[in-house]
Amino acid sequence: MRTISIAAIVVTFNRKKQLLECLNGLINQTRTLNAIFIIDNSSRDGTEMELYNNDYIKEIPTQKENGVFKTETLLPSPSKKKGENLKIVYLRLPINEGGAGGFYEGIKLGYELGFDWLWLMDDDGLPEKQALKHLLLFSERAHFINSLVIDIENKTELSFALKANNSKNNLKTINDAIQNASDGLIYNQANPFNGTLISKELISKIGFPKKEFFVWGDEIEFQLRAEKSNLGIATVVSALHYHPKAITKIHKIPFFKHVISWSGIPLKDYCCIRNIAYIHKKYYPKSVITTIFKYLLFFLSKGDFTSSLFCVQATYDGVFEKWGKERKYLYKDNS
Q1: What single-letter DSSP state applies at residue 265?
Q2: Phi and psi, residue 242, nearest 5°
Q3: How many domains does the chain have?
């Protein structure tokens, strides 16, 4: 019987210390990986030198490097089986393509190389050493299998809320998740790209992430496509993945029950509104007007016409698929 092949994909940008912790977690999995792909979004904090100094790569890009830089390193397999190696592939993109572009490149590479499963995560995630082993126990139940994402600072709470099986109730703690699981699974729920295991068959059916999203929502749109595939989505409550708790700035609209998400960071807010507009147009067309109305109501109530116009423009770009405008905001903040 052929052993299935699995590659982890880690997208990184300016988090060299967290990246090393993530890589250490991957290397020490009780079910060993065949490869790790590091997709570097043109980090400016010396990530490549940190990887070089820790023997993950044997060469670093020169200052004259203008295109994609790719290098491969073979490490002794953690399984210590004779003749086995762990392949480390470092792919440095020439410009920052955002999380969406990074996962697009990583999934495309892993798929083209023929891996049976790809395990997806950001650089600030840390898989528990038995996470992959527990995910694979359910590989015949679903093709989109998520770890349970735990707050790295408070390990009793979830980083992102989930819905209970057959319920609208939010699950906020590990105990909530365990008590509401069915045979170890929370069906049709996931926190995508945080310890997410996806199959080659799923990718064949739904394609790659939408790289044009740049940041925010690419994982949601990918999950929506996975749901339509009918190949199965589930979270495995025994597979733990540690991650900083999600922090979303929520604002209440005066005299209404509605809320909006608004960070005050132009890049994030533009991508958020634009990508929400695209997602709603494609999957929930009746709610496009409702979404932009909430933002307009919030800012017009404050007399903020500049932000109102910003929201209208971002919504227009999402509905009519005008991509690439986020770059004018790219270096105006520290994202």
Answers
A1: -
A2: -90, 140
A3: 2
